[in-house]
UniProtKB/TrEMBL annotation, chain A:
It catalyses: a quinone + NADH + 5 H(+)(in) = a quinol + NAD(+) + 4 H(+)(out). It is an enzyme of class 7 (translocase). It comes from Streptomyces composti. This is NADH-quinone oxidoreductase subunit J. Its EC number is 7.1.1.-. Residues 197-235 are annotated as: Disordered. It is a multi-pass membrane protein. NDH-1 shuttles electrons from NADH, via FMN and iron-sulfur (Fe-S) centers, to quinones in the respiratory chain. Couples the redox reaction to proton translocation (for every two electrons transferred, four hydrogen ions are translocated across the cytoplasmic membrane), and thus conserves the redox energy in a proton gradient. PANTHER family: NADH-UBIQUINONE OXIDOREDUCTASE CHAIN 6 (PTHR33269). Signal peptide: none annotated. Keywords: Cell membrane, Membrane, NAD, Quinone, Transmembrane, Transmembrane helix. Residues 197-221 have a biased composition (Low complexity).
TrEMBL record, chain B:
This is NADH-quinone oxidoreductase subunit K. Gene3D superfamilies: 1.10.287.3510. The gene is nuoK. InterPro entries: NADH_UbQ_OxRdtase_chain4L/K, NUOK/Mnh_C1-like. The chain crosses the membrane at residues 66-89. Its EC number is 7.1.1.-. NDH-1 shuttles electrons from NADH, via FMN and iron-sulfur (Fe-S) centers, to quinones in the respiratory chain. The immediate electron acceptor for the enzyme in this species is believed to be a menaquinone. Couples the redox reaction to proton translocation (for every two electrons transferred, four hydrogen ions are translocated across the cytoplasmic membrane), and thus conserves the redox energy in a proton gradient. NDH-1 is composed of 14 different subunits. Subunits NuoA, H, J, K, L, M, N constitute the membrane sector of the complex. It comes from Streptomyces composti.
Automatic annotation (TrEMBL), chain C:
Residues 68-115 form the NADH-Ubiquinone oxidoreductase (complex I) chain 5 N-terminal domain. This is NADH-quinone oxidoreductase subunit L. It is a multi-pass membrane protein. InterPro entries: NADHpl_OxRdtase_5_subgr, ND/Mrp_TM, NU5C-like, Proton_antipo_N. It comes from Streptomyces composti.
Length: 235, 135, 665
């Protein structure tokens, strides 16, 4: 097919010939491992987006992200795998759990976790999955990647590449992170000030409604400041 | 290893995340789903890097570098996103995305019914209308 | 200056005066009166000079083509023969008198500047009609008069009568003007020119192919302008305007234009026997009917209005027997005494505080309050009744004499004998009736019994002087002019003939005596039926008194035209006919049934169709986008997830389509 030919055209002739020599349904050990971990990852992801218990969703997300980290390892990208574990599992999910708590997410099943848009969402998701899988399989079903030899994703290789070829984007990214840090703080502060001023102007009597946001207002700055700090530390 | 395995897994993960983004009411669950989508993209990047760097077509390790960048940006995004969600929750008393319909045609702000925030939320449009009347 | 230059200045001066008056009227009120009076008087002097220079000799002609205008050229042309010269002098005299009179009559009127400017414009338009040698240019003046009459008749637009009357005057004359315009085009198409001289030349050479059609079309316009049956109904209603305007319209300008137009193109009408007969019938019906109606009117101005229609009937009668000399002679003398009658009536209305003859007949001593008006009006009424030696006698006898010539066959004109008989008989009957209503008017106005007339002080000098100025031609014009006028006109003898003089004068005297007898008979009843509503502001200027009198006549007496007065000699004389004569023989009701109601029905049909049919389509056309809009609006729920779902769905569709196209599947 054309897509396959287009993809095959990307690789030089030798790799092409090597791919030709292997069948699609002749899995190696790595492939089986990848498949099994992939199934677990996908299952955890599906549970994440379908479960009615919000905290469970966050925990299943940990499983999915951890599974992905294993997949990175299988693809010989070990540095990225550890970064994945540190940032995602270590900080992002914690951040999300904080968020859930601060928005008073109910413990236990909440029947209104899915919106009325569910079936349309399912249709769109299935349709795009079908389209993507069809295209991807059609294009890469015979493409072989050689994972033997020296691992390409060690910390040394990655660091060398990052600080040789990608220095400028890296520095730009640090500026971006700084901006995000400042932005998160400003957003929280501003919201708090507006909320207090608005509450004071709106109603003279302090109602429970006015009190509860005011009580939570001080806290979200902590995870905000915490998360960029984590990442800076990671790098 | 065949490239098709990580590619298909990535596609499926992406669509799972897509479903979550479209179907979840809670904004934080939507953010989780966004994370899933980003990770699917990361997996794709890593897989193609593994393929192309061995095939000597790409010596810059651009796939892995971009994955790192994506992870960093995703972390920033989740921080900002959670700040926004919390701000919205403080103001509106809800983190449900389908309650935030201020841009709807013929929008009539409806307070989140019954709970303690009802008086608070219904006071906002009243104040807004008063401001419009005096303007 | 050459005669041509002078002649051009004659219509131009009042026009410039009107423009200047309109421009400075609000900012410099002190200039308004000079700007109104002086151009008119100057134009009178110039018209007199032109007449003296022309002297009844060969016509003064001048023409210049402003620009090529297609197949039939339109020239700025002058054509001044004896008719034009003398008519212009008459117009100047009457307009000058009216302007001077108006300065007193509308002394306190806030709208005097625009009023005076419009009168000047009116005068200018009439002078243009008189001097123009090109029918298109003539039409310009003709139509300007129409619109000016609309504004002037509606001067008291606060009153509903004036508004209705101005609209009616405009619409009825326009009704005649449409066929008039078509007739002009047909005439120009046949003759190849709008120039009067060329058209008359074509008529003489037999170059007009459809003389009857053209003549009848033109007659429609003439009937509208000159208030001939059946388009005369606007004229009595036009009495809702100020009295000087009535004098101007009735004596010299608007109504004279139609007669003057026919006189100019008489050879064209003579080419069609049918048109002449129609003209004769029109004249006969007009003069007898209007005389009967005049006998039944209560409003003093409406009496005069109907008398104007009748006298115009004499003029068209003279034209119907193909003697324009007699017609224009009567036009001149009638212009003088009718202007006098109206202006005197204005003075009387001011003094009496009412325009109702019934109310005046219950006042004594009115003639002592306004002696100038009393004497001049007596003179004018005698002239109107054609009592020798006043002006009306000679001009009216000229008409009757010509008719007699046609009947006896001694004349040299080409008019049909039937037309002669019609005009002669109708003229004699009308002579009787004219004397009767003139006598009635005089008796009721000046010989009333009852309470003393209120004293409003002396009338303004500007108003009374003018009366005496106009009284001179009313007395002397006929006797002095009938020998010299033929030199100015076509050369026909205009002297009275014995038979018609005796008959006409005898009938007039008889009419007067009978009316006097009837008045003696009924006058005793006047005391039993008190009537009389007088103006609430007797100290106001004459225009205000008149406006109030017109506005209160209907509420006070039940009708604008008549009053339930058993002491009215006209009621006794007319008997059962009085009821019909008072409302103009129901012609307005007939028009209402024939035209107004069908038009209204058609209008309501159209509005129904518009509302129910056309608007249905419009609404239908609007409904589809509205439904589409509602459908699209329904999609805008404000739910971000819905939007993103649609976005992704579209993206997937597009991506699949792109892939399919790219792979050629």
């Amino acid at each position: 097919m054309t897509l396959a030919a287009t993809a095959a055209g990307l690789v030089p002739g030798t790799a092409h010939l090597a791919a030709e020599s292997r069948g699609f349904l002749s899995p190696t050990g790595v492939e089986i491992a990848f498949l099994l971990v992939g199934l677990v990852t996908l299952g955890a992801a599906v549970v994440t987006v379908t479960t009615r218990q919000l905290v469970h969703a966050a925990l299943w997300l940990v499983v999915a992200l951890g599974g992905l980290a294993v997949e990175y390892l299988l693809l010989t990208a070990e540095f990225i795998a550890w970064v994945q574990v540190l940032i995602y599992v270590g900080s992002v999910v914690v951040l999300l759990l904080f968020g859930l708590m601060l928005t008073r997410a109910p413990i236990g099943p909440s029947p209104d976790a899915d919106s009325g848009n569910r079936w349309a969402a399912l249709a769109v998701a299935v349709a795009s999955a079908a389209a993507l899988v069809w295209v991807v399989v059609d294009a890469f079903r015979a493409t072989w990647m050689d994972l033997e030899g020296a691992p390409s994703g060690t910390t040394e290789v990655t660091g060398a590449s990052l600080f040789q070829h990608w220095v400028l984007p890296f520095e730009a990214l640090s500026v971006l992170l700084l901006a995000a840090l400042v932005g998160a703080i400003v957003l929280s502060r501003k919201a708090k000030a507006a909320s207090r001023a608005g509450a004071g102007a709106r109603e003279g009597a302090p109602s429970p409604a006015g009190a509860s946001p005011a009580g939570t207002a001080g806290e979200p700055t902590q995870p905000d400041t915490e998360s960029p700090a984590d990442k800076e530390g990671d790098r | 290893m065949h490239l098709a395995y990580p590619a298909v897994l990535s596609a499926l993960l992406f669509c799972t995340g897509l479903y979550g983004v479209l179907a979840r009411r809670n904004a934080i669950l939507v953010l989780m789903s966004v994370e899933l989508m980003l990770n699917a993209v990361n997996l794709n990047l890593v897989a193609f890097d593994a393929w192309l760097s061995r095939a000597a077509l790409d010596t810059l390790h651009s796939g892995q570098a971009l994955t790192l960048f994506t992870i960093a940006i995703a972390a920033a995004e989740i921080g900002i996103g959670l700040a926004i969600v919390l701000a919205v929750y403080r103001n509106r008393g809800t983190a449900h995305i389908d309650k935030l319909r201020d841009t709807a045609e013929g929008h009539e702000p409806d307070g989140p019914g019954g709970d303690a925030h009802g008086s608070d939320a219904s006071a906002i449009p009243a104040a807004g209308e008063k401001a419009e009347a005096t303007a | 200056m050459t005669t041509t230059t002078l002649a051009v200045l004659v219509p131009l001066l009042p026009f410039l005066g009107a423009i200047a008056g309109l421009l400075v009227g609000r900012t410099a009120p002190g200039f308004v009166r000079p700007l109104a009076v002086l151009p008119t008087l100057a134009s009178l002097a110039l018209a007199a000079t032109v007449a003296a220079r022309q002297g009844g000799d060969r016509a003064v002609e001048a023409a210049t083509e402003l620009t090529p205008t297609g197949s039939v050229p339109i020239d700025l042309a002058l054509f001044i023969d004896g008719f034009a010269a003398l008519t212009a002098v008459l117009v100047g005299v009457v307009a000058g008198c009216v302007q001077i009179y108006s300065t007193g009559y509308l002394r306190d009127d806030p709208r005097y500047p625009s009023y005076a400017a419009l009168v000047s414009l009116f005068t200018s338009a009439m002078l243009l009609v008189v001097y123009s040698g090109d029918l298109m240019v003539l039409l310009v003046g003709w139509e300007v008069m129409g619109i000016c009459s609309y504004f002037l008749v509606g001067h008291y637009w606060e009153t509903p009568e004036a508004r209705a009357a101005s609209l009616k005057a405009f619409l009825v004359t326009k009704l005649g003007d449409v066929p008039f315009l078509i007739g002009l085009f047909a005439l120009a198409a046949d003759a190849g020119s709008f120039r009067i001289t060329r058209i008359l030349g074509a008529v003489a050479n037999g170059g007009i192919e459809h003389p009857t059609l053209i003549a009848l079309l033109l007659l429609a316009g003439v009937a509208g302008k000159s208030a001939q049956f059946p388009l005369h109904t606007w004229l009595p209603d036009a009495m809702a305007g100020p009295t000087p305007v009535s004098a101007l319209i009735h004596a010299a300008t608007m109504v004279a234009a139609g007669v003057y137009f026919v006189a100019r193109l008489l050879p064209l009408f003579e080419a069609s026997q049918a048109a002449m007969t129609v003209l004769a019938v029109m004249a006969a019906v007009t003069m007898t009917g209007s005389a009967l109606a005049a006998l039944a009117q209560d409003d003093i101005k409406r009496v005069l209005a109907y008398s104007t229609i009748g006298q115009l009937g004499y003029m068209t009668g003279a034209l119907a027997v193909a003697d324009r000399g007699a017609a224009v002679f009567h036009l001149l003398s009638h212009g003088a005494f009718k202007a006098l009658l109206f202006l005197a009536a204005g003075v009387i209305i001011h003094a009496a505080g009412t325009n109702s003859l019934a109310a005046m007949s219950r006042m004594s001593g009115l003639r002592h309050r306004v002696p100038d008006a009393y004497w001049t009006m007596t003179v004018a009424l005698l002239a109107l009744a054609a009592i020798p030696p006043f002006a009306g006698f000679f001009s009216k006898e000229a008409v009757l004499g010509v008719a007699e010539h046609v009947v006896t066959g001694t004349g040299d004109s080409g008019a049909p004998a039937a037309a002669g008989w019609i005009v002669l008989l109708a003229g004699l009957v009308t002579a009787l009736l004219t004397a009767a209503y003139a006598m009635r008017l005089w008796l009721l106005a000046f010989r009333g019994h009852g309470a003393e007339a209120p004293d409003h002080g002396r009338q303004p000098l500007a108003m009374t002087t003018v009366l005496w100025v106009l009284a001179v031609p009313s007395i002397a014009l006929g006797g002095l002019a009938f020998r010299t006028l033929p030199d100015w006109f076509d050369g026909h003898d205009l002297g009275p003939t014995l038979t018609t003089s005796v008959l006409g004068t005898g009938l007039a005297v008889a009419g007067g005596i009978v009316t006097y007898a009837a008045w003696r008979h009924t006058g005793t009843r006047a005391a039993g039926v008190p009537l009389g509503a007088v103006a609430a502001h007797p100290q106001g200027d004459a225009a205000r008194v008149e406006a109030e009198a017109i506005a209160t006549h209907g509420p006070a007496y039940g009708d604008v035209a008549q009053a339930p007065d058993p002491a009215d000699p006209g009621r006794l004389l007319l008997g059962p006919l009085h009821r019909h004569a008072a409302v103009g023989f129901h012609l307005d009701a007939v028009y209402s049934a024939l035209f107004v109601r069908p038009v209204r029905a058609g209008a309501s049909l159209v509005s129904f169709l518009d509302r129910e049919v056309v608007e249905t389509y419009v609404r239908g056309a609007g409904a589809l986008p509205r439904w589409l809009g509602a459908a699209v609006r329904g999609a805008q729920t404000g739910n971000v997830q819905t939007y993103v779902s649609a976005l992704f769905a579209g993206t997937v569709v597009l991506a699949v389509a792109v892939v399919l196209v790219a792979t050629g599947a």
